[in-house]
Amino acid sequence: MTGVRIERLVTSGVFTPDDGIRDVDNNVWIVGDDHEALVVDAAHDADAIVAAVGDRRLTAVVCTHTHDDHVNAAPALAAATGAPILLHLDDRLLWKHTRSDRAPHGYLSDNQRVEVAGTRLRVLHTPGHTPGAIRLHLPDLGTVFTGDTLVVDRRTTGSGRRDTAYGTVSSAWEMTGTRTDRASRSAGLGETGRRCLLESVAQEIP
Fold it and tell me: In the chain, how long is the greatest CA-to-CA distance?
């Protein structure tokens, strides 16, 4: 691993949960080096993400889950860059509900590794927020991308939204905690779009 870094882009748009429409800011995470990159959660603004990636080769667009505010820019981003859209198999029905015009390119499974720029992100299946919600553990940089299992937002408890039809949060926080000890956790959504770092809560990742 040489020169791998994490970049954050905050994009703004709307989220359509069961109880209406909300204005939201989302974190789009870019992991890579000067030559290639991977995007985690392509939200709202494909043009802004393309600009942030620049002339690097985009290797994948990975979805931590498929609520519309985390994937609504993924099809346009994939079309512009040729990068595949990847999500967990258990979120395929939710993807079809939110993005029926475009099929994903592939499905992820628990403990699968996704490679970029000489480093690997480990897929952790942590259902709860959605059936196919995942976390991405990047041990080289001590970081876990949590999607919406951790949410910096006054409307929530901090352990995942409870306002969507596909979400059952009771197990999501426990699963994330027990599998991501002593790693920083990068939240997917927040009122300031900031990175969320928490203390460890449970056992180390095996």
Answer: 46
The alpha carbon of residue 75 and the mean position of all alpha carbons in its chain are separated, in whole angstroms, by 15
* Encoded tokens for 186: 């990068």
Distance CA 132, CA 123 (A): 11
Q: Quick: pLDDT tens for 126-152.
A: 987 789 999 999 999 988 898 877 655
Burial 160-169 (b: 16+ CB within 10 A, else e): bbeebebbeb
Distances from the Cα of 68 to the Cα of 54, 71, 178, 179, angstroms: 25, 5, 27, 26
CA pair distance 138, 155, nearest whole angstrom = 28
Name the phi and psi angles at 177, rounded to 5.
-60, -45
Is the pTM for the entire model greater than 0.70?
yes
Half-sphere exposure at residue 185, Cβ-oriented, CA atoms within 13 angstroms: 29
Q: In angstroms, rounded to a whole number, what is the distance separating the alpha carbons of residues 205 and 203?
A: 7
89-118 pLDDT, tens digit per residue, is: 999 988 887 776 778 999 999 999 999 999
The single-letter DSSP state of residue 204 is P
